[in-house]
Amino acid sequence: MLSTESAALIRATLPTVAGALDEITTRFYGTMFHDRPELLDGMFNRGNQASGAQRRALAGSIAAFATALLDDPDTRPDTLLARIAHKHTAVGVTEDQYTIVHKYLFGAMAEVLGDAVTPEVAAAWDEVYWLMAGALISQEARLYQAAGVQPGKIWRQWTVVERRTETADVVSFLLRPADGEPAPRARAGQYVSVRVRMTDGVHQLRQYSLSSDPDGELRRITVKRVTGDAGGPDGEVS
Fold first, then answer.
1. In terms of Cα–Cα distance, which of 151, 169, 165 is closest to 224?
2. 179 is in which domain, residue-wise?
3. pLDDT one-digit tens code per residue, 200-233
4. What are residue 194's phi and psi, to 5 degrees?
């Protein structure tokens, strides 16, 4: 768990870091995608980037994890991270990508906070980051194993066998594995990731909940058209 020395520094700097997280995460994503544009192909949703949803989710998870470590230092908050781990495995996050995120996130923190990020403060937040990353990596490894897939190799081709119009802006798709093999058993409330190549050649993805019999040979998802508002883009894969 978090060391005593780091806990004191995190407690002292958490208000400052939390207050700047929106700016930090904005700079983090901007720099990372500039240097590593391939991460936008099939992993990060451009709509969530444009709306700021991804940025707010990252900022919230960092602040919540740090707070949990301070409030209950003897317990690793795995429950807090479970939803994140499921999201990560749904898009194929791999262990090595945590090193990439670390590089750009801590670079953004240093740029935004400047001299406030002393070597000691940086080391304390580094400890928080790797506690969080280590817990996620462990959970994600178990999820990949349970699903019978290798990390990062999660995609399977499916064929649309029927399209049903539900309302003016809602349709359902019935899907069958393109390889002819049985569909994997699903669980009630399970989310699945759908990845589609867009007209510019970039893959975009979105998560949907299954709306069909988990034991049937087909899987059904129901899709609602998302129209951009306040100058935002229309939803992709919707």
1. 169
2. 158-224
3. 878 888 888 887 765 678 888 998 887 766 655 5
4. -115, 125
Give me the catalytic one of 104, 127, 129, 140: 140
What is the pTM assigned to this prediction?
Answer: 0.82
Domain harbouring 220, CATH code:
2.40.30.10
How far is the first Cα of the chain from the last one, in angstroms, to the nearest whole number? Answer: 42
**Residue of 98, 104, 129, 208 with catalytic role:** 98
Question: Does the pLDDT value for residue 189 go beyond 80?
Answer: no
Burial of 150 (0-12, 13-18, 19+ CB in 10 A): exposed
Q: Output 152 or 177, whichever has higher pLDDT.
A: 177
Angle between helices 4-35 and 119-147 (to 10 degrees): 70
Residues 49 and 142 in one domain: yes
Known catalytic residue: 98?
yes
Q: What is the mean pLDDT of residues 109-119?
A: 96
How many domains does the chain divide into? 2
Q: Is 14 exposed, middle or buried (0-12, 13-18, 19+ CB in 10 A)?
A: middle
Asked if residue 208 is part of any domain, the answer here is: yes
